[in-house]
Input
Amino acid sequence: MNAHEIDYRIFGEEMQYVEIELDPQEGVVAESGSFMMMDADVKMNTIFGDGSNQEKGLLGKIFSAGKRILTGESLFMTVFTNDGQGKKQVSFASPYPGKIIPIDLTEFGGKFICQKDAFLCAAKGVSIGVEFSKRLGRGLFGGEGFIMQKMEGDGIGFVHAGGTMAKKVLQPGEVLKVDTGCIVGFTQGVDYDIEFVGGIKNTIFGGEGLFFAKLRGPGTVYIQSLPFSRLAGRVLAMAPQTGKGDRGEGSVLGGLGDILDGDNRF
Output
């Protein structure tokens, strides 16, 4: 194997974290902001690119790191390596309520495609790159699904799904239609395209967006019930406006109270 062989345990229900057990000189690579805790002999090192064996020389590292800018990620990643004797642990936490999904790349032909903010960490040696859309419609209207990340190699990677996770195994030719933000990731055999919702009433009054993703099998698809964009939108919608009192989420008067409490002048 090119990637390090790591053992792991996942703890928690709604707010999970993954504890990775490292043998001496084993390592795990992670995005910034996901680290939770580690043993004293685990050393943290910031690297250019993803630290995989696919990076050949300085030019390869620059190319690997440069592609990450397109996904909104940092040029650098962090490697956690066990420099001590015996087994050591390092843990990484979910960014918001949901589930951590272990992806064994050997079970999926060495490649898994995921949303650009779903990747959490992976065994050192797994390549974390960019998956571009080859279709014009997906590029113009795909939204969150236009530029995705991919994990390649023969190790284990971890992705995060918001809310509740659904795993769908699609048979050849079987189609699943999904909100673009609800896709966590899928295997390389799945055909991914964007489809127009259709219908005047659906377009104007539907409130679900003009397009959804169409996934065609064969392959495995992971779906999340709570995309971060949806969570952030709800939080912003409930945030009190400047200069107005906070009546709480359960207020009976709601907006009518703004007129009655004297904040509005006529």
Remarks:
- The first strand starts at residue 7 and ends at 11.
- The two ends are 74 Å apart (CA to CA).
- The chain has one domain: 7-238.
- The mean pLDDT is 79.
